[in-house]
Give the backbone structure.
Amino acid sequence: MIKAYAATEPGGELKPFEYDPGPLGRHDVEIDVETCGICHSDLSMLNNEWGMSQYPLVPGHEVIGTISQIGEDVAGVSVGDRVGLGWHSGYCLTCPSCLSGDHNMCAAAQGTIVGRHGGFAEQVRAHAASVVVLPEGVDIESAGPLFCGGITVFNPLVQFGLKPTARAGVIGIGGLGHMALEFLRAWGCEVTAFTSTDAKREEALKMGAHRTVNSRDPEAIAALAGQLDLVISTVNVKLDWDAYLATLKPRGRLHFVGATLEPLDIGVFPLIGGQRAVSGSPVGSPAVIAEMLDFAARHGIKPVIETFKFEQVNEALERLRSGGARYRIVLTR
């Protein structure tokens, strides 16, 4: 039996829960969970905001732990390996996306907390292809958030071949945005942080921004006209997107990793005239996650975290709901 914390209804409190995972699959691994980050996606799943939650629901998809069991056909990882597990727990491995190395876009990918139990538990199971061994030099306590928030902001740098001489902007300095600042600065970019919070300006500079711009000041944004190669939006609110498009150079890109709930209100002529692009992306493939971990280890990049014990999970979730977390929350033993 696996001991975990589960909600039995939308928005419900997490309570101790046990379940029988059954026999270990031939291609699966079982991980003894050491830490697990808490993501806004966990809250969305707890509240069934996306209409696909199943209860009892065990959240948790930013897992760090040690492999304790492997299936008979598992290759590439071994018992005792310290690994991470993110949003996906399995892939079909046969579709064009998987065969091209884009496992994160597999239409049959299995979500770690979608139709299965996640990492707010003593153990969690996953297909071996979805776990990534941690390299030397990665900070274990804070590594969990790299497997969802971290890879979400790192993936665009790889997918679009961002040059280290690029000028990049980040909208929103929170759970995603603060990691984007760290990655972009280490990548070599000149980094602009857009934030509406005065208290975060000094923090943004410490985390990698070369300058900060008040996102509520139209004149300050307009002063950046034609200067940026890439702007990454990490927020989920409606903004004046045409104003941010105007900050882009020709062939610049406005890229969304935050799930803005309202339709984008964007004029076409700025796109056409400057061959600019608007795009979005999810988490990355296992190969890109491994690349991100190596990059983080080399440059000493780690998320800024607050820690709670697993038995404090409801208190930790409330901290996240309140918007007070700085900047990611991690459950520890």
In short: Residues 286-299 form the longest helix (14 residues). The chain has a mean pLDDT of 96. The two ends are 19 Å apart (CA to CA).
